[in-house]
């Protein structure tokens, strides 16, 4: 331990501690725009590029960037001298001199770190007006929106994409005043290896990276008397949406979420969880078939569209191992426009399916050719949790005062197994609950598989006893972890019977469309705990016990894994 003094407060810190971290220990917040330490997922952006965290160190002539300067024994630091504050303000003023000033209409208005810090520093005018760099905007993917005019070169997106997700989409391009962070040759994002996981969006401090918004399209559909607009909500929405309205992270708002969708004008409010139960029916069947020699092992869960795009780009030689199941929300779309339409006598071409998702990649997924039926999208629009919250505010709905309402039936009924899809380890746990009972013919007494749970380990392994067989299960979250796992499988270094991969660290609870957590991963953990809580509260906790799902098979689909099931619920992959 070494002794330091910050603003006359004496403290001891471990060697190697930065001034920024030491200051935090004594509740002194030094502002920074580029620094980000997401310790749990091993992401540290320490580029020291914004220089907003400048402080004075006694005995040194130059101001020091607190994020990149390690403490030494006897160090005396002052964070709030006239010189430090003036320098900090000048750095922000310089950033503002090359930044659009359209805050009032900016997507990130109220959520932008640059805006917040400029306000905190009391900046009231743009002191250095002059030329501004402008670039091509990009919404080629229909999922991720890039507005490089708003890039402040903090490089957080680059670190996230390159080091955590290992997709290496971004680097600094061009030179001098024109320098900006973007894909090589400034290609449209659709032509890069981007998976649209949206993790770069989650860490962008400004609106340089956001989602492509479909809010207006959804309003238009809702106001069109010829349309029958229905909503489905992903498992992870109900444990995060409350944050947008000031509720504590981890508050379960399922009933209010349903009520809000009804008040927005959706004719039916359904649950993606219903389709997650259907996914388990199909996937568990496929798993057991493969265990019996029909197909290759391991089987990989296929519900994360970002992860699907990743394996298509990065491991084309492994494309016979993902399950052929569509993702639950795509299954839902197919079911809504066939089974639901026929059962309730609604013309399929009038039905507009809106998915409320924690995910940006789902916006890309719905456009994939192999997921269309006769050229028609199964899901029409995807809006993120954030976009949904905007619609609620726009409609003047006081969210926290809403009553709790139930989903509509039949596509609103779900089990605890489907709820946990939204967290890392949840899909495989749900599949195990069903596969175990189908394979052994025995009732599973304890449905909780704790070996596949948890946030901290990016790669998890568990062994599950299935009669006389030891099933080896692998779970990866975050694409860098997925890459390590797949490389080992490809090279024959590891063997598993079944694997779950989710592109976002933590799974959908930390999807790229969730409320911004500004680097506080405790929020993500609270969402995870809430999903497990919701699972415990459910009277039914195994997908194959969902009565509405069983009825649909009986009335419409027929055999699990049969011809109709394949037509509606399965897909293929494209290298
Ligand atoms: Fe997920 Fe899903 S669990 S991907 O993480 O499988 O987005 O929440 O909706 O489709 O169900 C996201 C979340 C979903 C799907 C489900 C899966
Ligand atoms: Fe990289 Fe994901 Fe961002 Fe694409 S969306 S650039 S893969 S972090």
UniProtKB/TrEMBL annotation:
SUPFAM superfamilies: 2Fe-2S ferredoxin-like (SSF54292), 4Fe-4S ferredoxins (SSF54862), Fe-only hydrogenase (SSF53920). The keyword Iron applies. SMART domains: Fe_hyd_SSU (SM00902), NADH-G_4Fe-4S_3 (SM00929). Its EC number is 1.12.7.2. It comes from the Bacteria. The keyword Signal does not apply. Keywords: 2Fe-2S, 4Fe-4S, Iron, Iron-sulfur, Metal-binding, Oxidoreductase, Repeat. Residues 83-122 form the 4Fe-4S His(Cys)3-ligated-type domain. Residues 142-172, 186-214 form the 4Fe-4S ferredoxin-type domain. Residues 1-83 form the 2Fe-2S ferredoxin-type domain. InterPro entries: 2Fe-2S_ferredoxin-like_sf (IPR036010), 2Fe-2S_ferredoxin-type (IPR001041), 4Fe4S_Fe-S-bd (IPR017896), 4Fe4S_Fe_S_CS (IPR017900), Cytosolic_Fe-S_CAF (IPR050340), Fe_hydrogenase (IPR009016), Fe_hydrogenase_lsu_C (IPR004108), Fe_hydrogenase_ssu (IPR003149). GO terms for molecular function: 2 iron, 2 sulfur cluster binding; 4 iron, 4 sulfur cluster binding; ferredoxin hydrogenase activity; iron ion binding. PANTHER family: NITRATE, FORMATE, IRON DEHYDROGENASE (PTHR11615). This is Periplasmic [Fe] hydrogenase large subunit.
